[in-house]
Design a protein that fits this description.
5-stranded parallel β-sheet, 448 residues, single chain, alpha/beta, 49% helix
Length: 448
């Protein structure tokens, strides 16, 4: 699309000269010789860039600038000023002008300034677009349950620091979403957020992907390539599925986390970076340390701040919020709603695939449902079959009453006895993560 440039200058000769010069460069040019006229043109047709004279007969250039910025905050403005008004031009830049040029000037110079300003504006628009895409890709944290309130509090507390974070939890619980929330709430929010799936790359490619390589470092390395750590400089790097990283690469990563520097594969130059590291895993790293598949020193280097994402079955009160969110996401026109009976079905299911599974179920239901209301029949047969097969545990209720805390403590003790105090088996049996089990043991003073 051809950029539209608005020139606002009370000198008709200046407007004519700029219009002719910029038209020759391929731009569409509009001109106004009065401030109010320029504001009206900006209202009618959003310009890609404005060239504005500081001295206007009807409205001061600073006032025009303020109006333009209220109309179109992201549109770049170049001020035209005389020698005696440079201080005013600097004031204009504080308000939001991108640059200024002093009369008299050569047309070639302002052509360059226009080109640079449009290029910078395009880059900023691309950055905004990519930020929006990140949000769409990872989604956002949703939930008002106590477990999610705890997670949100930890995110707020750790975000403003540079601390390394380890986020654990089952697959589909939103670990990557939590990582992005930390980045967005940090002082690095306007810097890169770079994600690497450690499980998706073979060992011989992972080192190059993380730290880059020099031309000729290995077969196929036709040119120098920056690694993800270098690209994420001043920002955040997400090491997704860190538990799947090969043991040899763990040694290399540990050294980089300690020294904050590295060399590209096949290179000799030491590259220093300032990167916030967030790692995620659905594995039990404590068990992996025992089996020798994960380094204990790397675990403690990563787990400076640990955040455990709760499974969906432990926060079922959030299911209606999540369902409504996914309905709006996949059906923006709100042409379909969900019946109370269908919502009850969703809250009864245990969600082994967590939030990701719920999202898929809602997306599928919207496709299958031909009417205006989603019913249980629109859910996958496997989900409905699982509900039919799931027995409802019998609980003997005391006439004198009991507390939920006492019931939970009693249930944990019984589960420990049933599984010979094997914490991993007990956590799986109760449908919670091992860190959550350890937290409950400490909460109720249960000693093993």
């Amino acid at each position: 699309m051809t950029p539209k440039i608005l020139v606002i200058d009370d000198e008709e000769r200046m407007c004519w000269a700029l219009e002719r010069a910029l038209n020759h460069e391929g731009y569409q040019v509009m001109t106004a010789t009065r401030g109010l006229e320029g504001i009206q043109l900006a209202q009618e047709s959003e310009p890609s860039l404005v060239i504005l004279d500081l001295k206007m007969p009807d409205l001061d250039g600073i006032e025009v600038l303020k109006e333009l910025k209220s109309l179109h905050p992201n549109v770049p403005v170049i001020m035209i000023t005389a020698h005696g008004t440079i201080d005013t031009a600097i004031e204009a830049m504080k308000i939001g002008a991108l640059d200024y040029i002093t009369k008299p000037f050569k047309l070639e110079k302002i052509k360059v300034q226009v080109q640079q300003a449009l290029h910078l504006s395009n880059l900023e628009n691309q950055v905004d677009f990519l930020r929006q895409e990140l949000g769409r890709q990872y989604g956002k944290l949703i939930g008002q349950s106590e477990p999610m309130k705890e997670v949100s509090l930890l995110i707020r507390q750790v975000a403003k620091t540079g601390t390394t974070v380890l986020i654990t939890g089952e697959s589909g619980t939103g670990k990557e979403v939590a990582a992005l929330e930390i980045h967005k709430a940090s002082n690095r929010f306007d810097k890169p957020f770079v994600a690497v799936n450690c499980a998706a790359l073979p060992e011989h490619l992972l080192e190059s992907e993380l730290f880059g390589h020099e031309k000729g470092a290995f077969t196929g390395a036709a040119s120098r390539k920056k690694g993800r750590f270098e690209i994420a400089d001043k920002g955040t790097i997400l090491l997704d599925e860190i538990g799947e990283m090969p043991i040899n690469m763990q040694v290399t990563l540990l050294r980089v986390l300690q020294e904050r520097c590295f060399q590209r594969v096949g290179g000799t130059e030491t590259i220093h970076v300032d990167v916030r590291v967030i790692a995620t895993t659905n594995r039990d790293l404590a068990a992996a340390i025992t089996t020798g598949t994960f380094r204990e020193d790397l675990y403690y280097r990563l787990n400076v701040m640990g955040i455990v994402m709760p499974p969906l079955r432990s926060r079922k009160e959030d299911i209606p919020l999540l369902v409504n969110h996914f309905l709006e996401k996949f059906d923006p026109t709100k042409s379909k709603k969900i019946s109370s009976e269908a919502m009850k079905t969703l809250t009864q299911y245990n969600w082994p695939g967590n939030v990701r599974e719920l999202q898929n179920v809602i997306e599928r239901a919207l496709i299958v449902c031909q009417g205006s209301e989603i019913q249980s029949v629109h859910f996958p047969k496997e989900l409905l079959k699982h509900l039919e097969e799931s027995p409802t545990p019998e609980i003997q209720l005391s006439e004198s009453g009991f507390s939920l805390g006492e019931l939970e403590k009693h249930l944990i003790i019984k589960a420990l006895e049933k599984h010979n105090y094997n914490q991993t088996k007990v956590a799986k049996y109760l449908g919670i993560t091992r860190p959550t089990l350890l937290y409950r043991l400490q909460k109720y003073g249960i000693k093993i």
